[in-house]
Amino acid sequence: MGRAIATVASDYKEHATVAKMEKLIGPTKPIFIGVAVVALFMLIWSFSPSASFPNISDVAKMAVLPGKDGGATKDCATVSYQGINLGHDPANKTFYDDQALSYEIGNPVTNWDDKRREWLKHHPSFATGAEDRVFVVTGSQPSPCKNPIGDHLKLRFFKNKVDYCRIHGYDIFHSNAFLHPKMVSWWVKMPVLRATMLAHPEAEWIFWVDSDAIFTDMDFKLPLEKYKDHNLVVPGFPNKVYKEKSCGGVNAGVFFIRNCQWSMEFLEVWAGMGPQTPNYEKWGQILTSTMTDNTNLESDDQSALVYLLLKEKETFGNKIYLEYHYDLSGYWVEIVKSLDTISDNYASIEKGVTELKRRHAEKVSEHYAAVMREAFANKSGSGGGRKRPFITHFTACRPCSGQWGYSEGQCSNGMEKALNFADNQVLRNYGFVRPDLLNASSIYPLPFGFSSYYKEK
């Protein structure tokens, strides 16, 4: 409809111009004469000092007609590029108006699914795509790191998460506060997750990522359709959990949880084994006796999760997906050894696919990620190499505490290499590359038609 209106308006303007010319020079019988006159008139007008062309500011003000390149909006100042109205909050009462509402864990929320649904009804711009909306949450301690390099590494780890979220259109929240004074260490995530669910009813999934975890495949996007029947997705191995009863059967440092009533109740039960409860010591003893390999006398979140999978499978376990088909939390020690080889493997694929060498805007990166997935799958059929790990998790490396689970060189060099490996994927769209994964300062312009990993011999 909009396109038709624009065409009619254009035709009307052209006929009006021809009519004016006919008054001056008389009716034009041959069609080509009329066309030539109009063309001459337009040419003279274009060189007139009074003629003006739209600059970048004028173009930004042009309205997009409904049905063409997305819907136009009347209030562009408060609508984000994703079409979400950030300035709309009607006076209709929602759960936020309930004086009994508490963001604190330990204060149960009821009927959360209905409350979310009601809020979305009053905020329709958020409703579109809500089922696939992901909100990333991470955190770090409120005090400075004891190791001098710790805060620098922490900043780079956070930058990596921001880059990943920007590429995929996710929001992110970083907490450096203990939202519950007793829930520290492993348990710090519980209060933050609970508060985030209430603060972001527009998000379907809350994605917790430990501060020491790095996104090392910036193209990878969570396969949410796969988890349509589940509410918690955590990296883990069923055999290790159900047969071996191992506390290492899952990794509770990276997971995503659905923003729903089930999750509200699950978080309360899970947190009920934490240090804020009077039965904390008792839970430590129970978990130690239940796990075959747990020598820690304290109750920790990971052992508690395994315990719930073992003892409450019917209540909670059937809604929990143990993911081991991709690196949702890849163990860093072996991964960092293979990053150079992985880089070379992707470079060889990119060199053989013209579209992958094309320069493009960062905002359309997901299109090229799809092209790469197809190219990688085709090569894998003929013995292709290892994929980029989605997340590389530096478990046991604790620079902020001043202690290292491994040698300082192992941890710091591994972190440097993984961070630069991930950052090369980001820098490509800005026209630069780090040829040496162990040298963050060595950055070169990327020649036209070259992949971000290819080094000219």
UniProtKB/TrEMBL annotation:
Membrane-topology annotation of the record: Single-pass type II membrane protein
Domain of life: Eukaryota
InterPro entries: Glyco_trans_34, Nucleotide-diphossugar_trans
Ranges that cross the membrane: 30-48
GO cellular component labels: endosome; Golgi membrane; trans-Golgi network
Keywords noted in UniProt: Glycosyltransferase, Golgi apparatus, Membrane, Signal-anchor, Transferase, Transmembrane, Transmembrane helix
GO molecular function: galactosyltransferase activity
Pfam families with a match to the protein in the record: Glyco_transf_34
Protein's cellular compartments: Golgi apparatus membrane
Predominant place of localization: Golgi
Family: Belongs to the glycosyltransferase 34 family.
Protein name: Uncharacterized protein
Source organism per UniProt: Rhododendron simsii
